[in-house]
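To whoever is on call:

I kicked off a structure prediction for a single chain this morning and the downstream step that reads the tokens threw a length-mismatch warning. I double-checked the sequence; it's 197 residues and nothing unusual in it as far as I can see. Pasting both halves so you can look.
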Amino acid sequence: MPIIKITVTFKLCLILSAIMLCLTALDNPLFPLLSLEPTRVSAGEFWRLLTANLVHFGWIHTLMNAVALLLCTLAFFTDYSLKKFSLLLFWCCAGVGIGVYCFNPEYSPYAGLSGAIHGLIVAGLLLTHAYPMWIRVLALVLVIAKLVQENSAGYEATDLQALLPVAVAVESHLYGAIAGLVFAVIAWLLQRLKRKK
């Protein structure tokens, strides 16, 4: 009996992790084309709102996000269809990209998947039935506390975050969490409507 349940969503995340690692290995040639630069998005390069989630500032940044993506998928999304999980991931990535573009143009360039991962965590905690309610509520409270702390004045990066060669775009975590919350609410409402029918 395998320890890790290899599902279609986990395979997708393995592929995405491999892509992120390849993009990091290629480094300079593609980073300027894929990272989020607000002035270039304004000029019509809208793909950057999504592709910025796939490029990173070095190996440590990439590995942290790749591992987080895989663990998050194993924790919450092994029973999701490819369509539903892809939609959630797309929604969170777009939410982060649009949030950074609209409210944090100082992050130029912006890159990384951590914002979208926060969205996956929030949506996962709200929608899963795999864990007791008290565990989900406690975990959600911890995520909210983390977001409040990160976005408070005078916040200093943790030792882990200090390993990155750039400042952590903590606002992206908030945008991702909001996107995950919106997705979860919409999914819950659609499920309620389906039950009534």
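Update from on-call: the warning came from a stale cache, not from the record. Cleared it. Sanity check on the structure: Residues 8-196 form a domain with the Rhomboid-like fold fold (CATH 1.20.1540.10).
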